[in-house]
Amino acid sequence: MRYLTGKPGWLLLLALGLAFPWFARNDYHLTVMSTAYIFALATVGLNLITGYTGQFNLAHSGFMAVGAYTVGILTVDHQVPFWIAFALSGVTATVLGFFIGLVSLRLKGHYFSIFTLCVGYIMFLVIEKWEGLTHGTVGIIGIPAPSPIGPLAFDSPRSLYYLVFFFLVLGVWVMHRIVTSLLGRTFMAIRNGDELAESLGINLMRNKLLAFMLSVFYAGLAGGLYAGFVRFLGPGLAGVEHTFDMTMYMLVGGLGTLLGPLLGALAVPWLTQYLQFLQEYRFIVFGPILVLLVIFLPHGIVGTWLGWRARREAGVAAPSRNAPIAGPSAAEVGTRPGGSHA
Question: Using DSSP, how many helices (H) and how many strands (E) does the chain show?
Answer without folding.
Answer: 15, 2
